[in-house]
């Protein structure tokens, strides 16, 4: 602080005229307080580094505050056109990860899981990892080793993950945790449109006349996106929310459809049935721009409102209202998220919404279209450039001979060296159990919390002969590994991400990493060098990787060639495809009426509803559904150590309807066919009586995903997180929330531990409040 009055000495009483002082301020001033108007803030040497949040697919702009010593110490919102000065609780606290006392700062290693971790040199950790890779592959074949990446990595790193697996490890087994995110939407988009991304930018929401949000708790999972919903409402748009819970957004909707979990496609087929029956389809649009419409029309004829109302547990008249409201709007949009996609028929659920949009002509116009809200920061970009088991860079298919030839030419390898398609993340765990995969490297993921059916996951990982994990905190999964590589957080490196709009944005480096920490890029390239593939991984930094990524994507549907770091700095983001450096990008798809299929049409798909994979019974009569909270992110490894977020939401709870007779805080045991856990009750009328909800950010013994089923969608291979059969019962005590794992010589950060033991659920952020029972 710098005094503007040289006569004032800090720390000394300030003379004042009592007649000029507000009542009650004399004691404060005499104790050494200084009048605010005589001082101004002056943080000498402070730098504001423009970047983006590390969390969800909105990708809010922010400034990281860096002190004169080069350390990140705070955050400021940025007037980026994505978020316009707004940040959510996670974004406000994200900077605290950077210099957190729990950061890993040296490689950890042990020869077997019975030993304690010890800190080792980078050479020892790398040499041991390479030796284990060679041993396992030499004994069991290349495909006995696998690699799992993550959708919170920069796109440059996801490109390296896929290339490293196929060129250095020479294995077909590579996938990523975006498999747990929006691959059902990706599959539906590719089938219908020939391209995998949202059709419209967020700004189009402001222009719509009717907005449909399905399976997305926008207010908690994507809080800053709420501004677009309110902007649409301000200009008169109607709002339809389809969700089993009355979320904060649902509470304000014109229509809230509280359907039974697992019945989405039955509902949307019935809506389309009404649209057809009442003559509300856009037949001219369908004739000019779609194929498969007659087959779809015949199918939805079998879903009259009365039938679907029984399946979905909603009023028949509500289905009719939704149909008239959506089809009768001049411009209508539909956005959805995991609530629609996390199902054994997730692809079909998404297709049923696409069918509705196309049948009403709501595709490719300002304020009219379709999109998916990505969960992870790089949920969109993370699957575009090769870490998904069936894709090569640029969204190329690994089964397409021409696509394989193109990538082999860029990578400088023979076509015979490129492995075939691998399996999905959950299938890889099953292969671990069967000892088909015996070694694994994991990067930017925490399957011990994020994958369903924890007992199966733990067994699969325990069966591995060798497991290495990259992370900046010791996650529950890393704590089970043989080697842990300490890597940078997002603020210690630069790179790009693609948000839910497919807008590519640039993250900038704000500080140097701690001594002993390396970038993911450095570790991947160093492992490749020691495996004998160093000539294919001569990348000193992210920028050099991005230049190869641009070339590798050129001419594809996912074309990044025209995007450069310099253009991103200048524009604030460019939507792909962007084929040349003078191309403005493509924020809105299908404006010319053409899709990315060779014939240019929308390929409408027939959808039939089928029940969830976990059958209901007298023993398991309820639906368990899971989701996120505003204070935490995914597996919680990034947020369960940040004090303000832990204080806000210290533990999971079970949301139950008052009809079950529990009071807030009562211990309630949730039982499924996979096991049981006890949570405090949050009693609310904002959930269906036949449904219970548990947030999933915590590990066992408070892990929602210890209870969920590992059934998969047959096309997208996404797990059915959003519905499984369950029952609830009274219990004697609540299961305790474990502290996050810590490295040797570290203790759990005390500021984040106190509130974990609070036995009560947090105050309900959604719904109509809580209901007590005397």
Automatic annotation (TrEMBL):
Listed Polar residues bias regions? 1-11
Q: Where is the 4Fe-4S Mo/W bis-MGD-type domain?
A: 46-102
Tell me what this protein is called.
Answer: Molybdopterin oxidoreductase family protein
Is Disulfide bond found in the keyword set? Answer: no
**Source organism of this protein record:** Streptomyces exfoliatus (Streptomyces hydrogenans)
List the residue ranges of the region (Disordered): 1-38, 377-398, 735-774
The record, for PROSITE patterns, names: 4FE4S_MOW_BIS_MGD
InterPro entries from the UniProt entry: Asp_de-COase-like_dom_sf (IPR009010), MoPterin_dinucl-bd_dom (IPR006657), Mopterin_OxRdtase (IPR006656), Mopterin_OxRdtase_4Fe-4S_dom (IPR006963), Prok_molybdopt-oxidoreductase (IPR050123)
* Superkingdom of this protein's organism: Bacteria
Q: Which UniProt keywords apply?
A: 4Fe-4S, Iron, Iron-sulfur, Metal-binding
UniProt signal peptide: none
Native organism taxonomy: Bacteria, Bacillati, Actinomycetota, Actinomycetes, Kitasatosporales
């Amino acid at each position: 602080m710098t005094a503007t009055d040289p006569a004032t000495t800090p720390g000394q009483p300030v003379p004042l005229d009592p007649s000029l002082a507000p009542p009650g301020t004399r004691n404060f001033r005499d104790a050494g307080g200084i009048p605010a108007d005589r001082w101004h803030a002056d943080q000498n040497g402070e730098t504001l580094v423009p970047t983006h949040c590390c969390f969800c697919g909105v990708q809010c702009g922010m400034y990281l505050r860096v002190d004169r010593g080069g350390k990140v110490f705070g955050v400021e919102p940025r007037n980026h056109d994505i978020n316009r000065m707004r940040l959510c609780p996670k974004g406000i606290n994200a900077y605290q990860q950077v210099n957190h006392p729990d950061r890993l700062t040296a490689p950890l290693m042990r020869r077997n899981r019975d030993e304690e971790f010890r800190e080792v040199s980078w050479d020892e950790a790398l040499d041991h990892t390479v030796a284990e890779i060679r041993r396992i592959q030499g004994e069991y074949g290349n495909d006995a080793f696998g690699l799992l990446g993550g959708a919170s990595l920069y796109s440059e790193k996801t490109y390296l993950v896929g290339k490293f697996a196929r060129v250095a490890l020479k294995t077909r087994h590579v996938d990523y945790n975006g498999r747990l995110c929006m691959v059902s939407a990706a599959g539906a988009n590719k089938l219908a449109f020939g391209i995998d991304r949202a059709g419209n930018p967020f700004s189009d929401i402001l222009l719509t006349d009717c907005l449909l949000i399905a399976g997305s708790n926008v207010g908690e999972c994507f809080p800053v996106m709420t501004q677009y919903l309110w902007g649409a409402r301000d200009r008169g748009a109607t709002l339809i929310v389809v969700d089993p819970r009355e979320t904060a957004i649902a509470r304000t909707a014109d229509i809230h459809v509280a359907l039974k979990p697992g019945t989405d496609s039955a509902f949307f087929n019935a809506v389309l049935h009404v649209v057809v029956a009442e003559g509300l389809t856009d037949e001219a649009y369908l004739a000019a721009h779609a194929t498969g419409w007659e087959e779809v029309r015949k199918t939805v004829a079998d879903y009259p409102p009365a039938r679907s109302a029984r399946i979905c547990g909603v009023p028949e008249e509500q289905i009719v209202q939704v149909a008239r409201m959506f089809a009768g709007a001049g411009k209508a949009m539909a956005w959805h998220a995991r609530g629609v996609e996390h199902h054994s028929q997730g692809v079909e659920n998404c297709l049923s919404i696409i069918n509705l949009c196309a049948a009403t002509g709501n595709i490719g116009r300002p304020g009219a279209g379709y999109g998916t809200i990505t969960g992870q920061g790089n949920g969109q970009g993370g699957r575009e450039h090769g870490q998904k088991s069936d894709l090569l860079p640029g969204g190329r298919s690994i089964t397409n001979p021409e696509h394989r030839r193109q990538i082999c030419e860029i990578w400088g390898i023979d076509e015979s060296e490129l492995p075939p398609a691998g399996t999905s993340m959950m299938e890889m765990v099953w292969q671990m159990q069967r000892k088909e995969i015996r070694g694994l490297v994991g990067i930017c993921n925490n399957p011990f919390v994020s994958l369903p059916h924890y007992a199966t996951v733990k067994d699969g990982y325990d069966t591995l002969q060798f497991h290495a994990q990259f992370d900046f905190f010791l996650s529950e999964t890393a704590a089970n590994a043989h080697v842990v590589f300490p890597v940078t957080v997002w603020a210690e490196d630069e790179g790009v991400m693609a948000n839910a709009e497919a807008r590519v944005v640039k993250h900038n480096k704000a500080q140097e990493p701690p001594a002993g920490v390396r970038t993911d890029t450095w570790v991947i390239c160093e492992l490749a060098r020691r495996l004998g593939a160093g000539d294919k991984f001569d990348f000193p930094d992210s920028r050099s990787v991005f230049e190869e990524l641009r070339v590798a994507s050129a001419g594809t549907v996912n074309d990044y060639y025209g995007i450069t770091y310099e253009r991103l700095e200048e524009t604030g983001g460019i939507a792909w495809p962007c084929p040349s450096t003078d191309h403005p990008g493509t924020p809105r798809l299908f404006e010319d009426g053409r899709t990315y299929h060779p014939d240019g049409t929308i390929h409408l798909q027939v959808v039939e509803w089928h029940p969830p994979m976990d059958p209901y019974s007298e023993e398991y009569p309820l639906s368990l559904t899971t989701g996120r909270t505003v204070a935490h992110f995914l597996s919680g490894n990034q947020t369960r150590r940040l004090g303000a977020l832990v204080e806000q939401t210290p533990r999971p709870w079970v949301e139950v309807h008052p009809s079950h007779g529990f009071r807030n805080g009562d211990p309630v045991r949730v039982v499924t066919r996979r096991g049981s856990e006890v949570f405090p009750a949050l009693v609310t009328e904002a959930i269906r009586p036949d449904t219970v909800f548990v947030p999933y950010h915590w590990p066992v013994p408070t892990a929602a995903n210890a209870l969920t089923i590992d059934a998969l969608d047959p096309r997208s291979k996404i797990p059915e997180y959003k519905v499984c059969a369950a029952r609830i019962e009274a219990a004697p005590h609540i299961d305790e929330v474990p502290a996050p794992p810590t490295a040797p010589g570290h203790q759990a950060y005390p500021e984040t531990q106190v509130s974990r033991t609070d036995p009560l659920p947090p105050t309900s952020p959604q719904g109509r409040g809580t209901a007590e029972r005397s």
